[in-house]
């Protein structure tokens, strides 16, 4: 049995396993069990991980390799908020690790039409250098931006975080502290009930570009296609990648990660799979995948440590 500790304390399971690791080529998918409380959010950057509870009130930064962690000061309390998002990345200009916390407060709801659900956004930014949180002003035009998944991606070597919206991609520059939006390349009906039929992936880091997999309508039904967002001469545009996702990919319900070398980690019918688009090969794993899979992130081992990190006993 595992002892449960209140308040988000560090601990480990008495049955022995501190970590569930899945090695596949050079990418490590790491599900942390350093904590005896429900971890709902996991992000990684430069070998560090950020983990938090559902309300993103109890937040830790740490290094699973060195087994050093730090409990962060609590952000402001927001009792009326229904959902929280965290984005974690490195500001290379300020040489500072930062965390963006976005809260969603439901202000209007129509049971007949999901599109009239209005969430007011609030944002806070944590600085590891200052060990403190501060409020971030959200522009009036984005105050009700419909963020659709509690998932964020930060590209390797980039200080920009990306969040999936219902009809646009939202980004936040950790140094400039500026939000931007990028309309999706494919237009769909406005009903959010059809969202799972439209976007078939989390926001991905695909070969250094932010990417999404969309379902495109054809005369024969729908075809999944991968689009990347890139900057060329100061202008941002979407590019459809010129490779086919074959029929076996159509069985995939949701793609979680791109792991490099043509390989995606996805959820299919009845389990989780690796899909290699170059080899057109599917490898099924975790037939009865535990909920821990949702506490999974693309992770690279390093020895990075920050001030205030303490050794896990």
From TrEMBL:
InterPro entries associated with the record: F-box-assoc_dom_typ3 (IPR013187), F-box-assoc_interact_dom (IPR017451), SCF_F-box_component (IPR050796)
Record Pfam families: FBA_3
Stretches of the chain forming a coiled coil according to its record: none
Superkingdom of this protein's organism: Eukaryota
Residue intervals of the F-box associated beta-propeller type domain: 38-255
NCBIfam families: F_box_assoc_1
Protein name stated in the entry: F-box associated beta-propeller type 3 domain-containing protein
